[in-house]
Amino acid sequence: MRVIGLISGTSVDGIDAAMVEISGTDVDLKVELLAGATYPYPEALREQILAVCAGAALSMAELAQLDDAIAKTFAQAAQTIQTDRPPAQLIGSHGQTVYHRPPDVQVGIPQMGYSLQLGRGALIAHLTNITTISNFRVADIAAGGQGAPLVSKIDACLLSHPQESRCVQNIGGIGNTTYLPARQSPHWEDKIQGWDTGPGNALVDLAVQHLSGKTKTYDQDGNWASGGTPCQALVEKWLSHDFFQLPPPKSTGRELFGVDFFQQCLADAEPYNLSAADLLATLTELTVASIVHNYQTFLPKMPDRVLLCGGGSRNLYLKQRLQIYLSPPGESTQLPITLVPRQSLGTPLPIPVLTTDEVGLNADYKEAIAFAVLAYWRHLGIPGNLPQVTGASASALLGEIHLAMAQPPHDSIDSALAVSD
Prior knowledge:
About 50% of the residues are buried. The chain has 15 helices and 12 strands. Helix content is about 35%, strand content about 20%. α11 (about 275-300) crosses α12 (about 315-325). It is α/β, with parallel strands linked by helices. The strands form 2 sheets. Strands 1, 2, 3, 4, 5, 6 and 12 form a 7-stranded mixed beta sheet that branches.
């Protein structure tokens, strides 16, 4: 089946679209990437999304208008990715997360989580005339889960290895990991773990926009940060935040690691008189240190290999710093003492840090590919979540189905809107 996966992550960079050919079910799943592209949001729409993520108020009419504007942009991406290719038979659209509240199990009466993704699937199906599956998180949340991360089962099918354990580390606006034991270990599927590790690119992107007067949106290849020196005292201070001590299952978003957290980081940094490059290096270091802290604290053993994906996998400075953290103690004098990897966790060091490209899965479009697979599984009636990862009480079919109408496809999204008007 030819399926299009669509997602805009917490960085709100634009819509990642992947058109894939999928066969098999789960254990024999095979995925071929036919095309991948990122389609930027119109700047005004991106600014509105970021404002809403930061807590800006909306009327119900404005919310409906924003929901439709995002859906139209997603539909345009789905239509464009099919140019000069056989048409897709199904779309899986994650949409744009604008609010995520994990379940609260600390209070006397557990509070169910809540997650809102805009870009309604019904409108995408109407505009593209392709059956669309969306709202993937709600079924897991209804079962008491975090609704995130949802890619761990796909990671297990496509990236697990017979002999070596792996961490698949996505670095979008927020970081998340999947720990995959070696398949030869007994009951390896039951030992898969996954959770959000903390900030990915979100804080660094906010800093770049702040320091550049909004002339830049991200630190390309980590070039700016690479000219600075991380302030380890600040890294350790920020790592003391409750989220990093919270055991999995756990998830987070811009609600925590967003504008308010960044403003606190700026205030904390003032006494240190950091240069712009130093500040970026320090925020990048927080992402790296939080990843390693999560591995050391919550994994049964350190992985044999780390596979990066997402936009942060292209940040060469971040990747270099992560490799340093995962190298033998004594090879670098730049690590916080509390984060020197513990040899007792089992795996000989250094731990190689690669991208998923190097094991056959495109790192840029891996998340979009994942939602294409989730839509395919929903179409086949195969559950898509892993309860031990999300904390759900049971496996669940993920996604709401919006059927295409029995009508010829429109020449363009604008013509479809004209007909609907």
